[in-house]
Write a structure and sequence with these properties.
alpha/beta; Leucine-rich repeat, LRR (right-handed beta-alpha superhelix); 9-stranded parallel β-sheet; two-stranded antiparallel ribbon; 11 strands; disordered N terminus
């Protein structure tokens, strides 16, 4: 028979007591766990199943209380939590939340993934002191949350050193990405700021993530390729579809590791011949541009052939 638990604070205390003391290993590994209940994802070990159940149940209970004042039901409960990738993942999309309550943050430090997309989050919904404690977090999704300020600004450098994916799509950011935008997450591999209209990049804003491999800024109202993107030399994928770009700068050749460049749906009229020097490109998306200086058969011949044609136009 299960023990009966009363008020929310007692429930949270009870659930926290069920989290094993060794629920997360700090061993760096890329292998899968055995029968002991621990499993690794990339280089950081995630929580055990029992620990994750306690964490997610506690967060859900607290969120339900915060989002349902005066007894109004919002549908948030432990059964509404989606954990598609395994234990330690909390997905609370479209639940009408303006914030997570303080008691929830007490256990959120055990999460490896947090998705609060499509909630009308208040400006102070993500306190820096609480975010900085989520040192096991690997994926953070805050798409379409009405955020006007960058949520990671001001966090201590390296405080989110496990974070590899950050999604911030369709937020009305009112200022450029600050110079310390990514200082908290030096291991970041993927950043998505698509749909942020009027997107701007402050000098040095990507320097905190020297291993950034994928950047998406589609439909962000860009009129030119931001110079800051050309400093992210570890990029392998750059997605700028659906902007108002009129040219690809010659300086794009510094992105020597690029394998995908998506500039479809822009206002390009031509391509710089030096683009052909990016011999590692496997996919160059150009559809939806008014390219007038390159014949259609060449455009339709595939990326390798197009790059070869461009190299042939580089002045001797």
């Amino acid at each position: 028979m299960h023990a009966r638990v009363g008020p929310l604070s007692l429930l949270l205390e009870h659930l926290r007591s069920q989290i094993p003391t060794n629920d997360v290993s700090t061993t760096r590994s890329s292998s899968s766990g055995g029968r002991g209940g621990t499993a690794t994802t990339g280089s950081v070990t995630t929580t055990t199943t029992s620990g994750a159940v306690a964490v997610t149940a506690a967060v859900a209970a607290a969120a339900a209380t915060a989002a349902a004042p005066h007894g109004v039901t919002t549908g948030i409960s432990s059964s509404s939590i989606s954990a598609p990738g395994g234990p330690g993942e909390l997905v609370l999309c479209g639940k009408g939340l303006t914030a997570l309550p303080g008691e929830a943050w007490a256990v959120a430090a055990s999460l490896t993934r947090l998705d609060l997309s499509s909630n009308p989050l208040a400006p102070d919904a993500l306190p820096a002191q609480h975010l900085a404690c989520m040192d096991r977090l690997r994926m953070l999704s805050l798409n379409n949350c009405g955020l006007e300020c960058w949520p990671l600004a001001g966090l201590p450098a390296g405080s989110l050193d496990a974070l590899h994916t950050l999604e911030m799509r369709a937020n009305p950011l009112g200022s450029p990405l600050p110079a310390d935008a990514l200082n908290a997450c030096p291991a970041l591999r993927a950043l998505d700021v698509s749909g942020v209209r009027g997107l701007r990049f402050a000098p040095g804003c990507l320097a905190g993530a020297p291993s950034l491999e994928r950047l998406a800024a589609c439909s962000a109202g860009l009129q030119e390729m931001p110079a800051e993107l050309l400093r992210a030399t570890a990029l392998r994928e750059l997605h700028l579809r659906g902007n108002g770009l009129m040219a690809v700068p010659d300086g794009v050749t510094v992105l020597a590791r690029l394998t995908q460049l998506d500039v479809a749906g822009n206002d390009l009229r031509g391509l710089p011949p030096v683009l052909g020097l990016l011999t590692g490109l496997r996919a160059l998306h150009l559809e939806g541009n008014g390219l007038r200086t390159i014949r259609r058969p060449i455009l339709e011949s595939g990326t390798p052939a197009l790059l070869e044609w461009l190299r042939g136009r580089i002045p001797a």
